[in-house]
C-alpha cells in the first residue's frame, strides 16, 4: 500500500501544471516557426507593398502591416528563426564557457579555484547587459558580435552555479568510494560528476534561453545587433518605435513574441528545476 501511495505521489509530482502545459505549447509553436516558418506563414517577410502600408490587424493581415506594407504576422513568424537561433547560440556560448570555468574551479587545486572564482566574481559584479555592451564597443556592432557578447555576459552567473554543483558532487560519498576503489580522475568525472551536473546544465540552458532572447532583442533594438528590415523581433521593435503613437501593432506583436518566448522558456525551466529537486 505504501509503495502504491508513493507511486501516486511521484506521478502527481511529475504531472505538468496548466502554466507548464501552456508554456510547452508556446515553445512547440516557436520551434515549428523557427524550423518550418512557411507552415504557419507562407508569405515573404521582406515583400514590400506601399499600397498596404500601415494596415491595422484584420483577417487579411492578422497583425497588421508596417510602414512598407510588409505583413507583420509573416515577419514575426519568420523572425522566430533568427531570434531563437541567436538566443540558442548565445546560451550555448554562455553555458559552454561556464562549464569550463565551473569544472576548473570545482575540481582544480585550491589556488586555481581561488583565482577562477575571483575572476568570475569580478565579471559577475558588472550588469550583464553592460558587459555585453562593453564587448560590442570593442568588437563593433553586428549579429555575431551581439551573440558572442550575450554569451560572455551570461557565463559568470552560470559558472557560479556549475562550480557549486561540481563541488557538491565531488564531495559526495559515492565519489569518495570511487576514489577508495582506485578509480582514476577522468573516470570519476565522466561517470559521476558530469552526469550529476548535466541536469543542472539543462535547467540553466532552458532558463538562459529566455534571458538570451531578451538581451539579444535589446541589443538589436539599440541598433547593435540585427538591423531593419531584418525579420528579427528586436529590429522590428526598433523600426516600429517611431510610429508607436498611431500604429501600435508594429511594436506590440514583436514585443509579445519576445515576452511569450522568454516567459515560456522560464516556466518550463522552473518546472524542470522543481522536478529535479523532488526527484533528489
TrEMBL record:
KW NAD (keyword) present: no
Superkingdom of this protein's organism: Bacteria
InterPro entries: BP-dependent_transpt_permease, MetI-like, MetI-like_sf
Residue ranges annotated for the ABC transmembrane type-1 domain, each copy included: 80-269
CDD domains: TM_PBP2
Membrane recorded as keyword: yes
Principal location class: membrane
Localization: Cell membrane
UniProt family annotation: Belongs to the binding-protein-dependent transport system permease family.
The protein's name in its UniProt record: Peptide/nickel transport system permease protein
Amino acid at each position: 500500500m505504501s509503495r502504491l501511495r508513493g507511486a501516486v505521489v511521484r506521478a502527481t509530482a511529475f504531472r505538468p501544471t496548466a502554466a507548464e502545459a501552456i508554456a510547452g505549447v508556446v515553445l512547440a509553436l516557436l520551434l515549428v516557426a523557427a524550423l518550418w516558418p512557411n507552415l504557419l506563414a507562407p508569405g515573404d517577410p521582406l515583400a514590400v507593398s506601399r499600397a498596404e502600408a500601415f494596415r491595422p490587424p484584420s483577417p487579411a493581415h492578422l497583425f497588421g502591416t508596417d510602414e512598407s506594407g510588409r505583413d507583420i504576422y509573416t515577419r514575426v513568424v519568420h523572425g522566430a528563426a533568427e531570434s531563437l537561433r541567436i538566443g540558442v547560440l548565445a546560451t550555448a556560448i554562455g553555458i559552454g564557457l561556464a562549464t569550463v570555468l565551473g569544472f576548473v574551479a570545482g575540481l582544480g587545486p585550491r589556488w586555481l579555484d581561488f583565482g577562477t572564482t575571483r575572476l568570475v566574481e569580478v565579471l559577475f559584479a558588472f550588469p550583464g547587459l553592460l558587459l555585453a555592451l562593453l564587448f560590442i564597443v570593442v568588437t563593433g556592432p553586428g549579429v555575431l558580435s551581439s551573440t558572442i557578447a550575450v554569451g560572455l555576459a551570461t557565463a559568470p552567473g552560470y559558472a557560479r552555479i556549475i562550480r557549486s554543483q561540481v563541488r557538491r558532487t565531488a564531495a559526495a560519498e559515492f565519489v569518495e568510494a570511487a576514489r577508495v576503489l582506485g578509480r582514476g580522475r577522468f573516470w570519476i568525472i565522466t561517470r559521476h560528476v558530469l552526469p550529476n551536473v548535466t541536469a543542472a546544465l539543462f535547467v540553466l540552458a532552458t532558463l538562459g534561453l529566455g534571458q538570451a532572447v531578451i538581451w539579444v532583442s535589446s541589443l538589436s533594438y539599440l541598433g547593435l545587433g540585427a538591423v531593419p528590415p531584418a525579420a528579427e523581433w528586436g529590429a522590428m521593435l526598433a523600426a516600429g518605435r517611431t510610429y508607436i503613437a498611431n500604429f501600435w501593432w508594429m511594436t506590440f506583436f514583436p514585443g509579445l513574441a519576445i515576452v511569450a518566448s522568454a516567459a515560456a522558456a522560464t516556466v518550463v525551466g522552473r518546472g524542470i528545476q522543481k522536478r529535479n529537486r523532488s526527484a533528489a
